[in-house]
Every structure is written in C-alpha cells, then in structure tokens.
C-alpha cells in the first residue's frame, strides 16, 4: 500500500511543474494529455482511499451487518464512550506507542548507519553482494519469520538455547518472558527492515557533491570527519522527511508482526491496536467499536504528522509540505 | 493530432474501467470456473437455480484430489441432487480456523451462501438479534426426512424465542477429550497405566527422571499446546478434575454457554492450575506450550517420540488417520505405542469432564437468501438414510468394505484422493449413526484401521462421567458482548498462572480473576444467576 502510494505521488509531482508555469485555460488544454494521464492516479485515490471512508460512519452507529451503513441506527459518540471506558483500550494504546517508539529509537537509525558503512566500501562486488544480502529479509513474510524465530529462540530445542545450555548456562526465556520478548521483537524488526531502508539513504548519498570530499581531503579531513561534516549534513533533509513519516505512523502498527510473534505470556506487550481491532471487530463482530478505535488511531496519527512537520520547519528543514 | 488525443483518452478510459470493475470481475471469474467444471448441468426446462453452500476448507486436500469446492463429492452431489432438481450447487470455501471471521464478512456483504453454519453461539445470537436469519419454523415442515433424522431434542437446540432459527447438526457421540500415554515407556519402567491423579504425577516424574525413550533434553512428560479452544489438545480435563462439588445454582452461574471459555471461577479451579504450575516447575510439561499456537509443534513432538502423555480429542483423525501423527511415530521410533488412560480423579474417585451437547454445528439460512426452500430441500435430501450413509462412508468397494456390518475405511492413496473431507460435506451430522452408543463407538473404531481399540477406548474414556453445559432458553447478553474478551483474558490468566514462580502463583491468579470480573466477568455472572432464578420460579 505504502509503496504504491509513493510511486503514484511521485508521478503527480513530476507533472506539476509544467502545469504551474502556465496556469491559464489554454495551458490546461495544451497539456491535456498529461491531465488524462493524471486521471488514473486520481481515480485510484478516489476509489480506494476516499470512497471507502464512508465506512467510517459506522463508528457513530449501532451498526448491524444486515442493515448496512444506511440502515443502522445513529448513536453519536456512544462507541467512543464505551471504548474509552475499557481498560484494554489504554493497554493497547500504550503497547502500540511503546513498540513503535522503541522501533523508532532502535530501528530508525539502523539503515542510516548501514548506509554510511556501505557508502565507505570501495570494493564494488563486495558492496553489491552485501547490499543484496541485507535486502533479502525484507521479502520474507512475517509468518515465515515467526516460524524462524520460534525455531531459533524457543526454550525447548531452540537453536540459540541449545547453544546456551550446551555451554553450561541456563536457558533464556526469549519468547516467554516479556522483556526478553521485546528484545527479540525489536531485533527481528531491525533485521527485517534495515537493509531495505538503506536504499533511500544510498540514493541521497549519491547526490552529494564529490568536490566537497576532495576539498576536505585537501584540508586534511579523515574518514570520520568527512562522514560527520559532509555525508550526514548532506542527507539531513532525507532523514528528517523519513522521521516525519515514521512519526505519522506512531499510532499505526502492522498486524502481522505482533500477531505472529506474540503469545499469551507476553500479551502485556504484544496486544496492540491492530490485534485488538481484529479481536473486537472481526472475531466478536463489534464492528462499530473497532471502527471507532481505527478512527481514533488515525486522528492521533494526523496530529503527530502535523506537529512533527511544524517542528521540522521551525528547525529550518523543508518538511513534507 | 486529433486521433492521437482520442487514443490517449480512450486508453485512460479503458484503464479506468479496468480499475472500477476489478472487484466485480473477480467474482464473475470464480463463478465462471465453478460452472464450467460442472459440465453435467441438466437441460430441463425452467430456470436453473444456483444454491450456494458453505464448506470448511481445512487445507488438507491430498495431492490430486481437487479443492473442497470441486472434487469427487461435489460432483456426486451435483449429479444426484442438483441435476434432477435443476439446481446448480456452488460450494463456498471457508477456512476452518477463521470460520467466524469469514462468515461475518460474507454476511456483511449480503453475499452469504444460502447455507452457512457455525459452532460459535455468540455469532448466532448476534445474527438473531440483528434479524439476519431466515425463520425456518414453517419451512422445516416440508422436510420430513430431516425432521425424522434429527429428532425433536436436537431441533429444540435451534429454537430461539419460540422460532426455529437454526438447524443443529446431530452429534451421535458427545465425547471430547481423553488422555493418552506411551505404553512402551510404561513397560520399560514396569509401571501400570495410571488410574489416579497421584499415580499420573508419579509416572510423569518417573518419565522425567529415567527417560525411558532416551530422548534427552527434548523429553516432554506431559504435553499440550497453546490454550485457545481450537487446538486438539489441552490440559482442561486435568484442571477440571480439581473442581469441587457445586450447588446447581453455582453450576449454572459459573459455567459458560460457550465451552471454550475456561471456567476460572469454579471452586477448586485454582488448585488445578497450581498442580500444573508445580508440574511446570519440575519440568514435567512443555515449557514452550504457549508458543505453539496452531498445535503443529505438539503433533511434531508426539510424532518424534518426545512426549510421554497428553490429553487430546478422542479418536481424532489428526492423530490416528493414515500417515498422521501415530503412523509417523511408528516409523520414527520402533515399538512406540500410545494407550488410552483416564487418570484424573476428583474427590469422589470419579473422572468428570465436559462433553458436548447432542448437537454439532448450527446450520443457518441467511435472511438475504432467495433460495431458502431449495436449501431445506438439499438438507432433506441429505437426511435420507442411504444418501447420508454414502456421503459419510463413500462407495462400497472404493472407499470402504463392510466388516461385521460396519464400514471399514480403505486406506489406499486412490481411496484417499476421493475421500478426505466427507465429514465436512455431510453437514447435518456430526459422527455416524448406527442405532446405539455402543454401536456408534464400534463403527468409529473402524474408521481408524490399525488403531481400532485405541479409538474406541479413548471415546469410552471421554464419555465416562461426562456432563454437558447448563443451558438457558435464551442467550445471555453479557456473554455475547464480553465473550471473546473474557475468553482471551481467562486464557492469559491460566497461562501466566501455570508458569508463575510458586510464591507468586496465588497473587497472579487472584489479581487476574479480579480483572476478569471487572472487564465483564461479573456482569456475565450476575446475568446468569438472575436467569437461573427466573428459570426456577
């Protein structure tokens, strides 16, 4: 979903500059072929992003699947009242924020560091191979990763624990004790996404003027100095944009990762908004309640994006709009 | 120039149309494939009706058998029921372990099959409350075979507020779980099959200490998988045997209408969990049980010969069918053999356990269905003795041979290819009917060649001292609302209590119960007590 939306938006931006130059009606007529091309992405957004939004109405209804959106009774904010009164609500919001914040702290810098390291590699074949190997985990589904993690970290017969016990230590409850589980959860996330995340930073790195490096070499700068004074400032705006986008997702959490990796023993951490919505919405058929949750989640996400964008602009960065 | 523009415009239009119709066309496609495969459609005059029937997809189709929507039996039904009645049958697959989710989606889109079914009472209550089910009170009158086969008691389970909203399938044997133990390990240690909880415990300790199977650190004396109500194994027979005597009122109050919600509040339940907690501390149960969410690890551990004993559904195909767990175990470990045991005794020396109501899944016809009459006709056709017998046992000589008057399954690859999901097709029946409990047990044994005695003994164990859930004549509203959340919470409390440090066991369990009551447990209890009092008036 995310990838497709970024590609379509890049298409739109590439056509806009020409439109901006000539705003008159004749200008529009002249470029009408481009406008026709634009129709497609616009239709996509209307159909798949805006039309389904009417469904959000059921957050304010006593929704019955047989009466539908048009026939169900309107009950105002009753669902939200019920939601905010549930003790599980606060737990899942806390867990979502907790997991996402930890991900932000640990997983966000990982691709940057990785990209910097890759950038320093001078042997091309090694760099290419390393990059490919680092991307690979991105293409493995969480279901498979869940199985791998189980095989690696379970208490009885897990690869890692077998090693630990054979060295004479006690086995470590990686998946059955919540704090250990958190480590495994974060580690798996970094392993899965860091390599893929480097792509965008590596692209940004190629945009840095080579002359700056040459000049600094003349001035006697070493590798670390160059990294700190040229490379990092060079990709600063990319980092900020990525950070804002991450902050926008602070309340959104994928379903598969916590669902597949979680279990009853670590529910204190693994029960998050998406899994809760699945249980309340699909499994107990409380669709209104689940939608209210989703709406609330979207609202908080919006606040985070706007706030972080404003802060970024204050610090002199471009922001995302 | 002009033509160029139009090409661009029409290209865009075509692409747009593709996007708009994407949803619709995929539906047409699937309908198209099913109709083309049923090439034998009759050409009788009059409009042909398409009857859509839900079918469970367990993902267990053998290679070459065809999917659950189009195989030997769907074609057989089309030929024997569809064609003569000018009805085209279309089977709609629903994954077994997501049946409720998928059913809700189907119902919400207004596109549900004409015949659906579910075991989940909450879902049924919701549908009735929202007026989404067809009232079958009148229609059932047109189905003499069905009425005769199911009988009044079974049908009464489908009556809500005086109306027949569901058609419950008949359950011929009400058993649930039995316990199994490795005979070869017992023999090696010179121990008898345990008959009391204490003996069971001592035996598990002996397994752990003496490791009769020489499996080392992989040894699991007593195994079960994650507790979620859908796995075939659980420790609940053990835990429930600790429950103390209750008054009738308490029995009604603390039970749940849905027997997958653990009944934490029953007096003595905590002692049962403490027993498991102790076993966990001593390394007698699987430390990873909570991670095994789909029960596959359990099956693999048993098949590899790591497991001393376990409690699971009696006479279950996952264990005893050809090439399944027990067959694999025999290949892996020479001489390995499980026998049935029933050791979990209560204070009176009895071995109580919950058993099923005399019904299986509830068959429903959505109100949106335009073919309720045909749907009932289909069920009535299925209820004829010879049809039901064929659907359940296959064709003589091809899928079974008669032995002492009971069908014995043929287990060649060829037979398996055309006979693998028949219990899911014969939806009006859960188990086979041969006239008496003994005969039914006998017949079930024949389904598992090589494991006849084990299958029969596990069923007898599972029925011994069995009790059914108490039943009210109306749904408990609080249970509908909080059911799933409570089940989740109860499971969490149980799992955490089992692995708690001994000195924290009590506080973890008690705190859990307090929370359980707070998030809806109390409301359910109060409503059940009121309902009980109203019933006794």
From TrEMBL, chain A:
Xref: InterPro entries: MetI-like, MetI-like_sf, UgpAE/MalFG_permease
Keywords of the record, alphabetical order, are: Cell membrane, Membrane, Transmembrane, Transmembrane helix, Transport
The answer to whether keyword Cell membrane applies is: yes
| Transmembrane feature ranges | 34-51, 97-121, 133-153, 182-204, 234-255, 287-312
The topology of this chain with respect to the membrane is: Multi-pass membrane protein
> Which Pfam families does the entry link to?
BPD_transp_1 (PF00528)
State its location(s): Cell membrane
Query: Start and end of every ABC transmembrane type-1 domain?
Result: 93-308
Has the keyword Membrane been applied to this entry? Answer: yes
Q: Which family does the similarity line name?
A: Belongs to the binding-protein-dependent transport system permease family.
Q: What is the designated name of this protein?
A: Sugar ABC transporter permease
Which organism does this record belong to? Paenibacillus terricola
UniProtKB/TrEMBL annotation, chain B:
Output the PANTHER family linked to this UniProt entry.
ARABINOSE-BINDING PROTEIN-RELATED, DIACETYLCHITOBIOSE BINDING PROTEIN DASA
Q: Does the keyword Signal apply?
A: yes
Provide the alphabetized UniProt keywords. Answer: Signal
Region (Disordered) residue spans: 24-45
Q: Does the keyword Cytoplasm apply?
A: no
Return the protein name.
Answer: Extracellular solute-binding protein
Secretion signal, residue range per the UniProt entry: 1-22
